[in-house]
């Protein structure tokens, strides 16, 4: 794609909505969606309103490198950096999906100094609902 | 006949016109690449053409390396999916899930890597567990005890001629990497604190001198 990799400055300019409430939140929820090809880390407040997000793709990784644990680690670090300035101390982590990002993002979150209250796994599980895609043949 | 200890088994090939000669049943691997012989219609003359065969008594089959990689990736997907959906495996890894505390986890198990041998018979699964020591032991013990069950479920899910033997190995590279990065971060923080406390103009002038001398291509670059 011809789109350049967005710099951190341009991302801040885009999110004008967040400037309205520069609130101090001591407690939040970190959602980590870890698929096999990418990891998306979203930081929200307890009610679920998104504060900031980051993903392996927005951190500058492209293609197969987005699925690696190192990319998940940088994405988590990025997402937390914006929030740690707002003074978040405790967080609950919700993990969705298989993938290497689960472990790596968790470790990055713990390293950054934020207290982890709970770790929950919220992978969507159908009670036998929609038909799943066909089996891959190797 | 001096070369052979057992008489060879001559089986008719399903494709019709070739006779496969299998090594005696004591050999371990199965044949995937049939041995091609020219001019064979019925039985084989003893002593003829067996000079080469007596060396390769146990036939080894090597799959295409690309296929090995594909199978490894597929096994990783299936095993991760099993960890998420299969109740038996979840109870083995996290015993308190059986009591109902399955959404608030004490430890998180991830499959970080899968290595398949080149004949697709042995699979080494590297598992990384996030949690305290006890959680790690419990998870690894649970997984190792369910190795046969995992093998049977994998055989049902994947279409492979022979389901490989599965071995679970603890992967400590995440731990080590995390520790190293934590130490590096600590050093960086301490350094930045020192720089903030003692800021001297002399040091900046000294740095400017070094910029001309240092070739940007060689030497170590310190990032502040």
From TrEMBL, chain A:
InterPro entries: Ribosomal_uS11, Ribosomal_uS11_bac-type, Ribosomal_uS11_CS, Ribosomal_uS11_sf. SUPFAM superfamilies: Translational machinery components (SSF53137). Its main location: plastid. Residues 1-23 are annotated as: Disordered. One of its GO terms (biological process) is translation. It comes from Stylosanthes hamata. The keyword Plastid applies. GO terms for molecular function: rRNA binding; structural constituent of ribosome. Residues 9-23 have a biased composition (Basic residues). Keywords: Chloroplast, Plastid, Ribonucleoprotein, Ribosomal protein, RNA-binding, rRNA-binding. It is found in: Plastid, Chloroplast. PROSITE patterns: RIBOSOMAL_S11. One of its GO terms (cellular component) is ribosome. The gene is rps11. PANTHER family: 40S RIBOSOMAL PROTEIN S14/30S RIBOSOMAL PROTEIN S11 (PTHR11759). Pfam families: Ribosomal_S11 (PF00411). Belongs to the universal ribosomal protein uS11 family. Part of the 30S ribosomal subunit. This is Small ribosomal subunit protein uS11c. It comes from the Eukaryota.
Automatic annotation (TrEMBL), chain B:
GO terms for biological process: rRNA processing. It holds the Pfam family RBFA. It comes from the Eukaryota. One of its GO terms (molecular function) is ribosomal small subunit binding. InterPro entries: KH_dom-like_a/b (IPR015946), RbfA (IPR000238), RbfA_dom_sf (IPR023799), Ribosome-bd_factorA_CS (IPR020053). Residues 209-218 have a biased composition (Acidic residues). Residues 194-224 are annotated as: Disordered. NCBIfam families: rbfA. This is Probable ribosome-binding factor A, chloroplastic isoform X1. The lineage of its organism: Eukaryota, Viridiplantae, Streptophyta, Embryophyta, Tracheophyta. The gene is LOC107466565.
């Amino acid at each position: 794609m011809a789109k350049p990799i967005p710099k951190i400055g341009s991302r801040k300019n885009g999110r004008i909505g967040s400037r309205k409430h520069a609130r101090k939140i001591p407690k939040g929820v970190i959602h980590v969606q870890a698929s096999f090809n990418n990891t998306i880390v979203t930081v929200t407040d307890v009610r679920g309103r998104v504060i900031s997000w980051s993903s392996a793709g927005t951190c500058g990784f492209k293609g197969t490198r987005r699925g690696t644990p190192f990319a998940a680690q940088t994405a988590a670090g990025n997402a937390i950096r914006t929030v740690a300035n707002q003074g978040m101390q405790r967080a609950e982590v919700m993990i969705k999906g298989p993938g290497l990002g689960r472990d790596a993002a968790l470790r990055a979150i713990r390293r950054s100094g934020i207290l982890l209250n709970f770790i929950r796994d919220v992978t969507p599980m159908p009670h036998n609902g929609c038909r799943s895609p066909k089996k891959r043949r190797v | 006949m001096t070369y052979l200890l057992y008489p060879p088994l001559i089986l008719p090939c399903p494709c019709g016109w070739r006779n496969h000669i299998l090594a005696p049943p004591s050999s371990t691997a199965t044949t995937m690449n049939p041995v091609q012989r020219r001019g064979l219609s019925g039985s084989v003359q003893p002593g003829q053409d067996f000079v080469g065969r007596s060396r390769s008594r146990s036939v080894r089959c090597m799959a295409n390396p690309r296929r090995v990689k594909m199978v490894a990736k597929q096994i990783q997907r299936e095993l991760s999916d099993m960890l998420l959906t299969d109740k038996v495996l979840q109870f083995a890894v996290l015993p308190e899930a059986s009591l109902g505390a399955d959404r608030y986890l004490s430890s998180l198990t991830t499959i970080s890597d899968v290595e398949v041998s080149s004949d697709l018979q042995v699979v080494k699964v590297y598992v990384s567990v996030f949690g305290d020591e006890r959680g790690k032991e419990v998870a690894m013990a649970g997984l190792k005890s369910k190795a046969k069950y995992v093998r049977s479920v994998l055989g049902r899910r994947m279409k492979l001629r022979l389901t490989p033997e599965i071995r679970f190995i603890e992967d400590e590279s995440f731990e080590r990497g995390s520790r190293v990065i934590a130490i590096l971060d600590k050093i960086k923080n301490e350094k930045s604190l020192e720089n903030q406390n003692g800021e001297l103009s002399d040091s900046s002038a000294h740095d400017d001198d070094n910029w001309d001398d240092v070739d940007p291509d060689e030497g170590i670059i310190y990032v502040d």
